[in-house]
Backbone:
């Protein structure tokens, strides 16, 4: 009996150790296939350095290859303005022909880092003070990074379609139903950002927030939804301000 009990204890210990020693690579893969188990393992042993490096690299790769299409998109919108000098438009056209890919890649990585920290801080505040959870900033940042991997993969999936179409206006959401629209339309902008990959990432991140804050899954997903509403509103708001200064007319639909 004693021997059987010891064997049982050894098996339980071995099983626990196996879960705790799950590699961060396995956790990152699990985000796409079994997020509940992946976040449970991450919660026991949070590791963010590799996730952060992978996120920055993916951001750099995506930004590097879409530099000319982003420049073209900006030119197309700004060219609608009657206040932009012709010289400025000529400079933008040169940027399309000779895009600064390295600069774009570095800016893309910097943007990912800055936005990720802001999202994590907001998530930490929401989870701790609004939804009554308790966690460390490291775990919250890790969940934000892990959930964001889905968006990064979505950007890479879009990349060959953008290159084939020669345009940034490639969407895996309802924005695809309005091919004649662009970012001068607020409704189109919302639909463009709110695509299938964002919704997927929202649900997965919600599962992660629930795990690390020890709250219900519904509350975790609520945190993710609030964060995405804030971030989309900020992006569209900044874009609207930029267009206003450039003299580009912004429409609701």
Residues:
């Amino acid at each position: 009996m004693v021997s059987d009990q010891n064997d049982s204890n050894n098996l339980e210990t071995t099983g626990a150790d196996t879960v705790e020693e799950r590699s961060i690579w396995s956790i990152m893969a699990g985000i796409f296939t079994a997020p509940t188990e992946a976040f449970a393992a991450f919660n026991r042993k949070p590791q963010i350095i590799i996730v952060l490096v992978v996120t920055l690299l993916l951001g750099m790769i995506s930004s590097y290859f879409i530099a000319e299409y982003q420049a073209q998109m900006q030119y197309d919108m700004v060219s609608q303005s009657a206040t932009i000098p012709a010289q400025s438009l000529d400079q933008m056209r040169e940027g399309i022909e000779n895009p600064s890919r390295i600069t774009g890649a570095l800016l893309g990585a910097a943007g990912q880092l800055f936005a990720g920290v802001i999202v994590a801080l907001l998530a930490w505040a929401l989870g701790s003070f609004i939804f009554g959870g308790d966690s460390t900033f490291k775990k919250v940042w890790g969940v934000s990074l892990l959930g964001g991997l889905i968006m990064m993969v979505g950007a890479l999936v879009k990349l060959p379609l953008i290159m084939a179409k020669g345009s940034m206006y490639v969407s895996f959401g309802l924005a695809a139903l309005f091919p004649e629209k662009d970012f001068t339309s607020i409704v189109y902008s919302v639909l463009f950002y709110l695509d299938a990959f964002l919704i997927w990432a929202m649900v997965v991140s919600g599962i992660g927030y629930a795990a690390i804050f020890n709250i219900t899954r519904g509350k975790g997903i609520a945190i993710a939804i609030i964060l995405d509403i804030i971030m989309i509103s900020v992006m569209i708001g900044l874009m609207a301000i930029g267009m206003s200064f450039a003299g580009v007319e912004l429409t609701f639909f």
